[in-house]
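Researcher: Structure prediction, please.
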Amino acid sequence: MAPDPALKTGIPGTMPVGQAERWAELSAHAAEANCFYTPELLLPALAHLDGQDVRLIEAKDGDTAIGVMPVSVERHYGRLPVRNAANWMHRHCFFGAPLIRRGHEQAAWAGFLALLDETPDMGNFLHLSGLDAAGANAAALEAVCFAQRRAIVEIKRYDRALLRSALSADEYWETHVRSKKRKEIRRLQKRLAELGTVQSRTLTSAADLTSWCDDFLALEAAGWKGEEGTALQCRAGDTAFFHAACAAAFAAGALHFLRLDLDGRAIAMLVNFRHAGGAFSFKIAFDETLGRFSPGVLIEIDNLHAVQGDAAIGWMDSCAAVDHPMIDSLWAERRSIVQYRVALKGNGLTRARRTTAFAAADIAERGSAFIRGYRTA
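Model: Predicted structure follows.
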């Protein structure tokens, strides 16, 4: 049966019961994991992170949901004043793959694109960010575009650290981290222990969730992110989102929250979210006054042991920026993250407008690439 796409303009933080149930069931059978688009994280984001204009595109096969993607309409494409549809990635979202039912990847993308084609106010083309270049979404999207003779352009890609290995934590540590660095970290661990009792903990009790969230927010805000105004605690909406997302993820068994304490006080904390056999490293915070002991590195060592010792976590995406000096030195694997621009079709003036806008974006991108190449030559 052909997919039956439906355009939903979601009320922030809410969803009709039937749609919420379909979404949760779809999330459990996703072809590609993305914790940021699960109900546990996306609903709090819609409620607290200025997501009022986000539309949830739902592709269905009969009564079965086969795809869900949050879409926003952007007024500009870079510096080009051209409206375009984009998979919504808020400021705390680090992966953009839609939730698509395993075995229905191409049907879901065909449904998404058909719906956007038929909706003139959704912009002139589709701009997709944060996809895995080797993932199920990218493969299905490219196949559908090829079959439909629909233009698709890869705009940009970069690699970021990924942890995926069958080795034990100790074996991985010995194999992938330089001996000089291992020796230095052992020295730092010993020096830190001289200051007091060092304890590594993982959140297991719902009764501790609020205090752990508060400790994380305070720890992050006390550092450079607080000074720059980018810490979660700097915005009321971000704080509310963090609490709500952690609570929903904990209730769903998807929160992986670690801390490193010195005499009972948190000096490093790490928040991860699980989904579909993998996990995403969301945020890290550490006491910068103890920077000489590298508490961020020390908690990443704890994280390595936790991930490699948990059969339910087959891999972890660092969600880190390109060439991140700390995590790149600890994790050897890489994940290629890609952006695409996809042509949208239509009828009459809509089709002509979209064709013109897509060509204008081509020219603008080629010009930018030329300028970058000239300046670096």
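Model: The chain is about 40% helix and 25% strand.
Researcher: Thanks, that helps.
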